[in-house]
């Protein structure tokens, strides 16, 4: 299993565009936004926080969404289309291990991306680190798993790699929209903000944990439920060839 994870990690590093977007893009975006003086000024729309303080949760959403909904579905669907999973089934290594390795690689890349983001937050912009670290860690893990489950569901249902990329893009855009990546959440209607707080990867819980409050157990429960439901359906409907 370790060899499979190591190999998949090396293959991930050979995709420069995915490495840049999944690991470095959230931090680069923070640096670009932070270069605007108005976004470093306390704003009553954010409870007298700066925009860069309030936007950190969305940056975490971006990192997790790229991994769970851009990388995972296309990679798994490509492996199936090219016969990689079928060949694995003829060896003592079950193809399911390759799927587990994909999720583990996502978790590793997500950790690196978020740690890098935290370092820049603290060193460059003097943004406090998560005030509720355990809640933040649990939310990040559930957020990554829920998005990975959705990504595997797309890969399970898509007839080929091209379709998987297209379907995943639709889900990715929805996640980014409700996560506040396209439109700041304070500009969105209240009901859209509430809906977004309960959708993977839980931007509301991420924001609360970063600012010091314990994440809403209902929000965490929804993430766990999505992980279980999507993961179960994906496992039962997945085609190895």
Automatic annotation (TrEMBL):
Keyword field: Membrane, Transmembrane, Transmembrane helix
Protein localization: Membrane
InterPro entries: ABC-2_transporter (IPR052902), ABC2_TM (IPR013525)
Pfam families tied to this protein: ABC2_membrane (PF01061)
Keyword Zinc among UniProt keywords: no
Membrane topology: Multi-pass membrane protein
Primary location group: membrane
Any one annotated GO CC term: membrane
UniProt GO molecular function: ABC-type transporter activity
Record field: transmembrane: 20-39, 51-69, 99-125, 134-158, 164-184
Top-level taxon in the UniProt lineage: Bacteria
Keyword Transmembrane helix: yes
Domain ABC-2 type transporter transmembrane: from-to ranges: 5-195
UniProt name for this protein: ABC-2 type transport system permease protein
